[in-house]
Design a protein that fits this description.
Blueprint (H helix, E strand, L loop, with lengths): L18 H18 L12 E6 L5 H12 L3 E5 L13 H11 L2 E6 L4 H8 L4 E6 L5 H15 L6 E5 L6 H12 L3 E5 L8 H9 L5 E3 L3 H5 L3 E4 L10 H7 L18 E3 L20 H19 L5
Parallel strand pairs: 1-2, 1-3, 3-4, 5-6, 5-8, 6-7, 8-9
Helix pairs in contact: 1-5, 1-10, 2-10, 3-4, 5-6, 5-10, 6-7
The protein binds N-carbamoyl-L-aspartate.
Amino acid sequence: MMSTDFKGMDVVSIRDFSREQIEHVLRLAEKMVPIAKGEERSVMLEGRILGTVFYEPSTRTRLSFESAMSRLGGKCLGFGEPKVSSVAKGETLADTIRMIDSYCDAIVLRHTQEGAARLAGHFARKPVINAGDGAGQHPTQTMLDLFTIRKEKKKIEGNHVVIVGDLKYGRTVHSLSEALAMFGAELTFVAPPNLQIPKEHLKAIEAMGHKPKISSTLGEAIKDADVLYVTRIQKERFPDLAEYQKVAGTYRIDMPMLKDVKPDLIIMHPLPRVGEIAPEVDATPYAKYFEQAFNGVPVRMALLGLVLGGLK
Ligand code: NCD
């Protein structure tokens, strides 16, 4: 049995966590909700400093980490854009991380390169939390996604989750699909053939005894879905923009598409969306993506409390 003592631990890949450990985070996150909403106050992380180091654009991930830290009485420093730091002068990731490590108690890193968070973990003495490493992983997003499914559906196990969009470059999907398999959800992957789920993840899922369905069309899968997880085609990861143009706009969830869905379907999206979900869908009871984004705050509060040692 793996420990639920996370103090000092790096959060790099969802594979670093057992189901029991993730459930522990989700349970603690539930207790954080009133603090995340500002209804209750906490000084659990008073005097602690979080470094937020973002080499790629972010709205939700960085600001929800900052909100989480502030709500627990802690403070943040860092940058949301490498151009304003010495990265622009050519400083290496190793040196940047070594410096920030000495100014704070934990580091949240988003980087363009797969493996960057693991590397940063070697140079930092303090815990490093991966907030997205290129087309690699996004473990904290997965935890908030699981939190959302559990909140809306009462359990994760047994739900049919249809994941649609850019499954090749989409890091949120890489972490989420493996975690969903671990929790016993049924999976269908819908993507254009050249953007399907990478073999590495498929193999890991199959090794857990699952046989996910693979498709390039949404029509049939959507009718049987309990959860529809929509993702953006990751334009910035395409080596050739012409290749992106060929697949841009392949899937769009609009009102006619929702005609025959289960009445209790939930639609999720890690956001930002760039046309995959029509705005009319926002007013339907299926739409849960804004709640999902809020859930990032209590989940990240729980994680920060655990790695900084305020929570057990
Ligand atoms: C995602 C990301 O950065 O991987 N955003 C997020 O963290 N919520 C999804 C995306 O950019 O499409």
